Amino acid sequence: MPDAAYGVRMRVLVSGGAGFIGSHTVIQLIAAGHDVLIVDNFANAKPTVIGRLESIIGGHLQVHAFDLRDADQTERLFAHERIDAVIHFAGHKAVGQSIKQPLAYYENNLGSTFVLVAAMARHGVSKLVFSSSATVYGANATVPMKEDFPTSATNPYGWTKVMIEQILCDVAVAQPSWRIALMRYFNPVGAHASGTIGEDPSGVPNNLLPYICQVAVGRLEKLRIFGDDYDTPDGTPLRDYIHVEDLAAGHVAALARLTSTDRAVSTWNLGTGTGTSVFNMLHAFERAVGRELPYEVVGRRTGDIAASYADPGRANAELGWTATRTIDDMCVDAWRWQSQNPNGYPDA
Fold first, then answer.
1. For the chain, what is the domain count?
2. What digits encode the pLDDT tens for the residues 200-248?
3. Cα dist. 295→110, 277, 281, 292, 305 in Å?
4. Does residue 81 fall inside a structural domain?
5. Is 69 inside any structural domain?
6. Which of 66, 125, 135, 137 has the highest count of CB atoms within 10 angstroms of its CB?
7. Cis peptide before 342, with omega less than 30 degrees from 0?
8. pLDDT of residue 212
9. Which pTM was predicted?
10. Is residue 215 part of a domain?
C-alpha cells in the first residue's frame, strides 16, 4: 500500500460523513491519501453536501444512505466493501433536544454504535476513531480539563458519550487487538476556506457562533447572551473554540497513530487550550463582518458553567498535532460560509 500523508493508506468508513465535522474530515482524509466511504442517514445533514464535497476533492465519493441502526444494511456494507478503519461521527447531538427526548437519544446514539461495532468485530475491522465530546467532563471539572479527569454528564446527550466511551473500553478489554481513539473536543466552529461547506444547524442554533452568523446574515434579530455575571474577565462564560479544520486534522492524525500504538484505547482532547469569552467571540465576528451586531444580555442558562477549556498537551505530544487557527480565522471562515449560503445548504 502506498504511504498516505499520515501513516499507512487506508480505506476509511466515515459515519455521519455529510455532517459538519464529518464533511471537513472527509476532505482531509482524502488529501492525506486515504480512500473514503461515507454512511449517513441525512437526519442532520443535507444530501447537497455530497456534491459540494466532490467539487472540492475533484472526484467521486462513495455514499451509502442508510441508518446505522439497520443491522442488515450495515452487515451488507461490511460484507461487500473492504474497510480498514472507521471514524464514527454519526449521532444526535443537541443538548436541549436530548433533555426533551431522552429515549430517542439513547436509542439512536447507543443503538447505532452497537450495530456498527458488532459489524466491525465480525469482519475483523479493529481501528475506530470515536467522536466524543468535552461534555464527558461534566459540570464540576476544573480547567484546563485533562483526559484523566473522571467522566460525568449533565444531560442525556452527554451520557450517551460517557456510555459509549465505556462500552468501547470494555470491547478493547475483551478484544485487545482493537485500537480505539476517543476524541474529546470542545467547541468546533469555522468552515472550509472555500466557503462551500460549513455548519448548517436545523432550527434556532444551540451554539454561539452559528447563532451570531444568523444574526449577521439577518435570519435572527439579535444575539442573546446568557449571563454576564460569571467569575470571568468580562463576566461571560469562557469556552474553547476550535476551528473545524484543526479538528479534522486531529482525526487524521489520530487514525495514523492507531497504526503504531500498543495502547488498545487512547483518549485525546482536541482544543486550543484557551478560553474565549462570549464577548470576545462576538467582537471577533464583528471584525470579520465589518460592523457591530445587536445583542442583549439575558439571564443565565441552566447548566452553563463559567469556564470550559482543554489541556491539549497529550494530543500535541502524541499526535504531533496542534490547533493553529485563531479566533479571527474562525470568524472570517464562518462568515464566508454564511454570507455565501445565507440559508445554509439547499434542500436539493
1. 1
2. 998 889 899 999 999 999 999 999 999 999 999 999 999 999 999 999 9
3. 38, 15, 13, 9, 21
4. yes
5. yes
6. 137
7. no
8. 98
9. 0.97
10. no
